[in-house]
Amino acid sequence: MGHPHTLAPTEAHPVANRAQAETVEINGLSLNYQEWGDSRSKHALLLLHGFGETSGIWEEIAIELSREFRVLALDQRGHGGSERPRDHNYSRNSQVEDLEAFVEALGLRSVTIAGQAMGGANALCYAAEHPDVVSALIVIEAAPEVLRSGVETMRRLLASADSFVSIDEAVETWEEFYPYATSEQLNRRIKATLTRSEDLTYVWDFDPIFRDATAR
């Protein structure tokens, strides 16, 4: 795809194995992202989360990969620490345009993209438009039927509760929707999906519009 590019190790440069939280203004929105590794590298591994998740879903793998590579994990619009668009525009085009602006804003010459579900679909569309920038593509659970099923399951989960008193309560609820997931997998995903509110309960960490089955 495009010109071959090797994800070169950054062993000669200082490496940050702890996430550096950053924001960037893109298409009228303030988007949050986390960065690990050598920020001077013009090639990066870009990680894109799925629907209803945040960049935190990638934390463990990002820490390991940052020992050799520059790693970026973006909170896509409306998710995590990124701003919610007032017009609730979550079309595929708008998300791909965010990726275009993000890569340009960070001055990246090339990227390897790994995308999960919604993030995988966004990555595919971006790669199709920018084969000269994407040196490699990893897509997880983004086949149309799999993606549709995953979003429907997530929306049913969202409709089941507004908040949770504890992580344990959240795990019990999630087990009903993901019976084959291990406790470790559920805990990791829950921590990347919920945030602590002012009343100390755990609430969804994304635009409430996602609970509407008609939202895109």
In terms of quaternary structure, what is this? single chain
Q: Quick one: overall form? A: globular
CATH superfamily of the largest domain: Alpha/Beta hydrolase fold, catalytic domain
Report the mean per-residue pLDDT as an integer: 87
Q: Strand sequence of the main sheet, in spatial order? A: 1-2-4-3-5-6
Key terms for this structure?
alpha/beta, 32% helix, disordered N terminus, 6 helices, single chain, three-stranded antiparallel β-sheet, 216 residues, globular, 9 strands, six-stranded mixed β-sheet, Rossmann fold
Chain-wise SSE layout:
Layout: E1 20-26, E2 29-36, E3 43-48, H1 59-65, E4 71-74, H2 92-105, E5 110-116, H3 118-129, E6 134-140, H4 144-160, E7 163-164, H5 167-177, H6 183-191, E8 194-196, E9 202-204
Parallel strand pairs: 3-4, 3-5, 5-6
Antiparallel strand pairs: 1-2, 2-4, 7-9, 8-9
Report on this model:
This protein is an alpha/beta fold. It folds into 2 domains: 1-144, Alpha/Beta hydrolase fold, catalytic domain (Rossmann fold, 3-Layer(aba) Sandwich), CATH 3.40.50; 152-206. Helices cover 32% and strands 22% of the residues. The chain has 6 helices and 9 strands. The chain has helices at 59-65, 92-105, 118-129, 144-160, 167-177, 183-191; strands at residues 20-26, 29-36, 43-48, 71-74, 110-116, 134-140, 163-164, 194-196, 202-204. The strands form 2 sheets. It has a 6-stranded mixed beta sheet with strand order 1-2-4-3-5-6. A hairpin with a 5-residue loop joins β8 and β9 (202-204). α2 (92-105) packs across α3 (118-129) and α5 (167-177) packs across α6 (183-191). Residues 1-13 have low confidence and may be disordered.
